[in-house]
Amino acid sequence: MYKVAVVGDRDSVLGFRALGVHVYIAYEATEARKVVDGIAKDGYGVIFITEQLASLIPETIERYNAEITPAVILIPSNQGTLNIGMENINKNVERAVGSNIL
User: Fold this and answer.
1) Which residues sit opposite 75 in a β-bridge?
2) Local structure of 9: helix, strand or coil
3) Residues 6+ positions from 37 with CB-CB distance below 8 Å
4) Which residue stretches of 1-102 are H helix?
5) pTM as predicted
6) Biggest alpha carbon distance in the chain?
7) Is the pLDDT of residue 93 over 60?
8) Tens digit of each residue's pLDDT (9 = 90 or more) over 53-62
9) Are strands 44-50 and 3-8 parallel, antiparallel or unpaired?
10) Which of 5, 26, 58, 94 sits between 20 and 30 A of 48, alpha carbons compared?
């Protein structure tokens, strides 16, 4: 069974703890990269990361998008969305279906 984690700033991710998700706090690119790489090696199947934090480490996000696990899913932070997550979903749907049906 895979574990689920969320990475982001404290205000955006702390509520996930009530859902049983492992919460990791990060604010800067260096610590975000270390956290994501660490939990990926720890057997996590799904890693949610705030869009703001993911925008600081695009090469790390792309590396895991090429892998089957963990699935790295971008979510909006408490500051709003950057629409990066939706763009990734559109790309994946287009790649799977052959056209953008969304």
Assistant:
1) 50
2) coil
3) 60
4) 10-13, 29-41, 51-54, 58-65, 84-97
5) 0.80
6) 38
7) no
8) 999 999 999 9
9) parallel
10) 94
